[in-house]
Write the structure tokens for this entry.
Amino acid sequence: MASEWLDNLKVGDKVVVENGSFGHDIVDSVFILTKTSVVTRKVYKFRRKDGSVLGEVGRPKTWLREPTTERLNWIKQANLARKLGKYNWKELPIETLRAIDEMLLESS
């Protein structure tokens, strides 16, 4: 249950900020706790009862989520894919590109 996890948070705990507006999650940590809210290092403020962000108008798009191993791995994979998508592959020597292509073929 989400509220159990939120109830047991401590300052310094790792959390995931699920951000529907930007389309990707980020890893953050708890900075301040009160009876009713959680503030993270990156200055998001959430309701402690359900993990929804404070201050968004309408239906919240940003949520505080538990940092499961699966979710943390997914975030790392998404961040790496975004980073590699911005890379200028044309600058690499052909031998390096062929080696990367082989690795990709082997992993799929």
